[in-house]
Amino acid sequence: MASLKTVLYLGVWLSAWIITTADENFVPKAENVRWVSLDFKTILVWTTNASDYKYTVSYHSEDPEWSQNPDCIRMSHSECDLTDHLRPLDRTYTVQIKTEPATVDYDDDLEDFPHSACPPFNPYRETNISAVNFTVEVVDESRVIVNITDPLSGIHELGKQLSLRDVFKKDLKYKISYYMSGSTGKRDIISNSSTAEVSKLNAGQSYCFMVAAFIPSRPKSSQQGAWSIQWCTLGDGNVLQGLSLAAWVGAVFILLTVLVIIVTVIVLCCKCCRQKNTSQSSAPV
Rounded distance, CA 139 to CA 182, Å? Predict the structure, then answer.
């Protein structure tokens, strides 16, 4: 009987030891690994459920050797800025994230720790492009000039922050979409430069314009950047700078609100006056 108890205790102890050892040896992988890239500012981000682990990011392209960002070796946070490391830009890069315990026995094979991967990424062909700024200059009743400011990229070279024109060069074009107020039909033109003339406009009519960066050499899903705010011209040739449809709706709402308040005040005043006159006329003489 004593021998049976000893065997049972030994079995329970061994089971607890195995579970504890397994927990100690379990290293969670980085999850939801994804690229976040806007105007070539490119960051690799991921999520993790544990805080007592370190992460090392490695990447490579055509060179089979893995490279590392010195700032992304055994770090505790869950993002790595690779903006200055993915060069040349027009290459497809593969990354992996290795998870390690906070304290490591370097007698162990570090390659045994789990690695997380992410879909390949090409900055030149896949980075998102932000909305551009532009102005509209009225030339005459049928023509306007659209002046576009090339957005800045996240890339710096020799102390200079490069614009998207510096990076894309002749590949960068702009799509200009415009319509006549009161019309549902839109027209699009593609400009090869940052200045474009829009002609054949109806004299005396108001037109609204929007602009987006356009790179036809990229895959169709990433050819166009975000649309700008809307600029509208008045029929007499003036320009309402930056007044979008939402701004017009807001302005009309404010005017209507003020009008309702004025009418309400007038009605209440008239009602009070009538009540006062009624009470005076009904009072005994």
Answer: 22
pLDDT digits (tens, 9 = 90+) for 124-147: 999 999 999 999 999 998 999 999
Say how many CA atoms lie within 13 Å of 1 toward its Cβ: 0
DSSP code at position 282? H
End-to-end CA distance of the chain: 118
| 93-117: pLDDT as tens digits | 999 999 988 876 655 555 567 888 8
Name the range with the highest mean pLDDT among 121-135, 172-186, 240-254: 121-135
Q: Other C-beta atoms within 10 Å of 46: how many? A: 19
Radius of gyration of the chain (CA): 33
Q: Is the pLDDT of residue 153 over 90?
A: yes
In DSSP terms, which residues pair with 35 in a beta bridge? 44
Q: Are 54 and 33 in contact (CB under 8 A)?
A: no
Residues 168, 163: Cα–Cα separation, whole Å: 9
Other residues' Cβ atoms within 10 Å of the Cβ of residue 233 = 22
- Could you give the domains of the chain? 18-126 (2.60.40.10), 133-245 (2.60.40.10)
pLDDT bracket for residue 21 (50, 70, 90)? very low
**If we measure between CA atoms, which residue out of 237, 244, 246, 139 comes closest to residue 197?**
139
Q: Measured on CA atoms in the order 77, 78, 83, 86, is the torsion positive or negative? A: positive
Give the C-alpha separation, 45 to 264, whole Å: 55
CA gap 54, 130 in Å, rounded: 33
| Burial class for 118, CB neighbours closer than 10 Å (0-12, 13-18, 19+) | buried
